[in-house]
Amino acid sequence: MLTPRQAVPDLAVETVAGGTFDLASENPEFATLVVFYRGLHCPICATYLKELERLTPEFEKRGVKTVAISSDNEDRARQMAEKVGASTLRFGYGLPLSKAKDWGLFISTSRGSTSIGIDEPALFSEPGVFLVRPDNTLYFSAIQTMPFSRPHFQEMVGALDFVQKSDYPARGEYTGAV
C-alpha cells in the first residue's frame, strides 16, 4: 500500500503525443495528477476523462500537471484521446500490469465485449487517481475496484485552492501500531 508523504513507485510510459511521460522528470509547481483509467472499452472512463480534459487548464493554474494512463496499446490509447477530444490532457499507454499493482491498482479479467461493443483486454487495471508532489511523494490517492464512484475533478480543483492557501499537509501518513 502506498503511504502519503512517502515516495511513489517509478512511472514511465510512452504518450500518444510522442515521447515519454516520466513521473521522476515532471517538475510541477504543486503536483502531478496521475489518473489511471481502465481503457478504451470503458464508457465511464471516456466521460470521466472528458471532464479532466475540460478542467486541465484549471489544474494547470494551480500548478498541477495532468496525465491519463492505461495498459492499452498505442492504437487504443489514441482512440480514447480522440474520443475525449484531448488537446491539453496527456495520454500515456502500455502501463505494465506489474507496475499497476505496484501502485495498488486492482486488476480485472475480461468479460468480453462491453456495452459500447469494444472488447475488454484479457487483463486490465481498475481506476486510480493520485496527486504526486514534485519530490515524487504521495499527496492524495483514490483507488477503485469498479469503474464508477471516482473522485470528482471539479471538487479537486476547489480543494486545491484550500490546500494551497492553508499549506495543508498530506494526510494518512501514520503507519505505526493502532
Q: Keywords, please?
A:
alpha+beta, Glutaredoxin, 7-stranded mixed sheet, two-stranded antiparallel sheet, 4 helices, 9 strands, globular
Question: What does this entry look like structurally?
Answer:
Helix content is 28%, strand content 22%. The mean pLDDT is 96. By secondary structure, it is of the alpha+beta class. It has helices spanning 43-61, 74-84, 97-102, 153-166, and strands spanning 12-15, 20-22, 31-36, 64-69, 90-93, 107-109, 123-125, 128-132, 138-143. β4, α2 and β5 form a beta-alpha-beta unit. It contains four helices and nine strands. It has a seven-stranded mixed beta sheet with strand order 2-1-5-4-3-8-9, covered by helices on one side. A two-stranded antiparallel ribbon has the order 6-7. The chain starts with 11 loop residues before the first strand and ends in a 12-residue tail after the last helix. The relative contact order is 0.22. The chain has one domain (28-166): Glutaredoxin (3-Layer(aba) Sandwich). The radius of gyration is 16 Å and the shape is globular.
Task: Describe the SSE topology.
Layout: E1 12-15, E2 20-22, E3 31-36, H1 43-61, E4 64-69, H2 74-84, E5 90-93, H3 97-102, E6 107-109, E7 123-125, E8 128-132, E9 138-143, H4 153-166
InterPro entries: AhpC/TSA, Thioredoxin-like_sf, Thioredoxin_domain
Pfam family, one: AhpC-TSA
Domain Thioredoxin: 2-165
Give a concise summary.
The chain has 4 helices and 9 strands. It has 178 residues and is an alpha+beta fold. The protein has a single domain (28-166), classed as Glutaredoxin (3-Layer(aba) Sandwich), CATH 3.40.30.
